[in-house]
Amino acid sequence: MQRIPALILETSPVPLEVVPLTRTSTHYVDNQRLYKELVAYRKACAKAKAKKRDRPRMSEYVGECLLKIATHLSYKPNFVNYTFRDDMISDGIENCLVYVHNFNPAKSKNPFGYFTQIIFYAFIRRIQREKKHTYIKYKLMEKQHIDGTNYEHAPDGSGMAPDNTMLSFDNVQDFISRYDDYSIRRRERRRVTKKKNGEPKELSL
Predict the structure, then answer these.
(1) Cα separation, 13 vs 9, whole angstroms
(2) CA distances (Å), origin 54, targets 51, 63, 93, 97, 174
(3) Percent of the chain surpassing pLDDT 70
(4) What pTM was estimated for this model as a whole?
(5) What is the C-alpha to C-alpha distance for residues 205 and 49, in angstroms, rounded to an integer?
């Protein structure tokens, strides 16, 4: 077997000039242009209000930015795995359209952060609603299982047999337990907040 001689690398005696690489990062939303568009839209809304007309339509660029912000935020690790991610994006855009007129250019020049916060809390509310619906569904299945009212056709065709398909999974029971714990903690936080703010207690029947 023929042996291949090793290559000998010689260092150059002339020092090499190191040129730093410049990174050009392009954000998916031009915050300055979005700010200018919102300033123009705010002025148009003021004119329409003075003439007692409906609020004008936003520019296409503002709508594109809202869609991009909501879509990119939904790719975050704490949101990306939800199956109802499209509903989260729709809720976020809807909330932005509702509160877009509240953006005050005199107080902030960061519309990207303003809309990101609105969309973030819209995502949280959608997740809470979906979890509540899932909890109700699982509790109904649990009740039917206890009452013996959930049946399906037996595999051998002998009649009806109890349907334990969903309740046989540990994650279902674990979800119910975790949601119950969350509800208890949430009620306790509300009670403490009411007591701290000095709000009157609800009368018991």
Answers:
(1) 13
(2) 9, 18, 20, 14, 50
(3) 70
(4) 0.69
(5) 48
